[in-house]
From TrEMBL:
GO biological-process terms attached to the record: DNA damage tolerance; protein monoubiquitination
Sorted UniProt keywords: Metal-binding, Zinc, Zinc-finger
Organism for this UniProt entry: Catagonus wagneri (Chacoan peccary)
Domain RING-type: 45-81
A Pfam family annotated for this UniProt entry: zf-RING_6
Keyword Zinc-finger found: yes
Protein name from the UniProt record: BRCA1 associated RING domain 1
Cellular component, GO, one term: nucleus
Gene3D superfamilies: Zinc/RING finger domain, C3HC4 (zinc finger) (3.30.40.10)
Amino acid sequence: MPGNRPPKVRSGNEPHPAPSMDPGGRGAWAHSRAALAGLEKLLRCSRCTDILREPVCLGGCEHIFCSNCVSDCVGTCCPVCYTPAWIQDVKINRQLDSVIQLCSKLRNLLHDADSSGRCTFC
Ligand SMILES: [Zn+2]
Ligand SMILES: [Zn+2]
C-alpha cells in the first residue's frame, strides 16, 4: 500500500537525491551515522563483538576476528561455527584493517559534527 507517490520510473543512472535535511541540518548526519553504524556492524569481531583489531579470518568460513581473539584457534577450528580452520599462520587482512581505520576516523568526524553542530568536512 504505497501512498499516492508516483511510480518510480527513473533509471539507476539518475543521481541519488540528496537526503532531505531537517531544519536543524542534522538530517544528513543522522543518515551518515546510520550508514556508518551499518558498516561497523560488519566490522565487528565474531568473538569479542568489538570493532576488529588486526582482522584475521581462519580460512574455512566467513567469520572475521581480531588476531588476539583467535590466536588459540589457528589450525584448529572457528570458535563460532566450528568450521575447521585451514590456516596455520594468522595473517592480518591489511585492506580490511584500513577500512576499519577509515571508519573510526569517520566516526570521529561525525561525532564532532554532531557535538559542535557544524560541518567538519568543509
Ligand atoms: Zn575480537
Ligand atoms: Zn566460522
